[in-house]
Amino acid sequence: MDPVYDISDNTGAFDENGNAIGDGIVDNPGDILFHKRTRTGQKDNYNLSLGFSATWSRPLDKKLQEQCKKAAAANIALMEQATANKRLDFEIARLKNCGELLKQGISFHPKSPYYSVCADVVVKDITYIKPHRHTIPSAPTSTSSMPSLEPGSHSHGRAEHLGAPLRTQPLFPSP
């Protein structure tokens, strides 16, 4: 049963003759006038169903599908090569920097957690010579047994007068 509410609006305002008229507000809100029967249409319903569904599809254009697979494979290969190039650049930079530091005698302490960064770098056959100077002793003073070594003078003396030890031996051994 559904209730039917009173929605009458007969009072609250007056017309030009002074008669009571509605003002747009319900006069007795919430008052139930009567109850009416409401048909719901509900009844018992029993249903049992079983189902099975299967779908099979086949592309109509295999050429496009193969192109897509080739493009994906090429893109994956490109990304792998880019990663390998970056790794090679990193390793070469590490090798160069560690080598330069090792040539200068700079390295991490063996107990440092960063010692392993350059632990596998080996510097062999260093051909770099640090800038340095040699001192050349002044020429010995001339004596009577030594010829003059002044510029422009020529000595026809003996080889031992030049100051170096002299050994003579044949160029080719004799038979």
Textual characterization of the structure:
This protein has 175 residues and is an alpha+beta fold. Among the domains are: 35 residues, no CATH class; 56 residues. Helix content is 24%, strand content 9%. It has one helix and four strands, in the order E-E-E-E-H. Strands 1-4 form a two-stranded antiparallel ribbon. The longest helix is centred in the middle third of the chain and has 42 residues. The radius of gyration is 57 Å and the shape is elongated. It starts with a strand and ends in a 72-residue tail after the last helix. The model has no long low-confidence stretch (mean pLDDT 82).
Q: What's the helix and strand layout?
A:
Blueprint: E1 2-5, E2 12-14, E3 20-22, E4 32-36, H1 62-103
Antiparallel strand pairs: 1-4, 2-3
Compact summary:
This protein is of the alpha+beta class and 175 residues long. The chain contains 1 helix and 4 strands, in the order E-E-E-E-H.
Key features?
175 residues, single chain, alpha+beta, 1 helix
Average per-residue pLDDT, rounded, comes to 82
Oligomer: single chain
Strand order in the largest sheet: 1-4
Question: Helix and strand succession?
Answer: EEEEH
Question: Could you tell me the radius of gyration in angstroms?
Answer: 57 Å
Structural class: alpha+beta
Helix content class: 10-25%
* Unreliable segments of 5+ consecutive residues: none
Globular, elongated, flat, extended or rod-shaped: what is the shape?
A: elongated
Share of residues in strands: 5-15%
Task: Note the total helix count.
Answer: 1
Distance from first to last alpha carbon: 146 Å
Number of strands: 4
How would a textbook summarize the main sheet? 2 strands, antiparallel
